Amino acid sequence: MATLQETGDLRKPELIRYNLLEFSPGMEVIRRLIRKGLIEDYDDPEDGRSKKVRITGRGSAVFRESLAEMTKASRIIGGGLSSKEKGRFVHRARKLLRFHQPFRENGQGNRLDEIMEKYT
Q1: Domain boundaries along the sequence of the chain
Q2: pTM of the model
Q3: Above 90 in pLDDT, residue 21?
């Protein structure tokens, strides 16, 4: 929901990739959120074969209500890092995610030697 709140409407596979989920579990999360009325899906006007999802008004309200608890959790997760340290960490984590994204999409099941040759 946070991703949809931040980025706007996305195709289902885009949302799943954005959140670094495997396809089947990601689709299950989407189905649950739709059943609860927190997000909704609709036909993609650019591609009739695809569905896009968006956060609903109820979903936005639930998300806003949960922000205080998420802020508390982020303080714990941050482990006492300063804002500057968190920024450096996020920068490095994004760099690693960009590096691993093609591997996740194309390299699963390959032998380690093949992966090493292709991605390093």
Answers
A1: 1-77, 81-120
A2: 0.69
A3: no
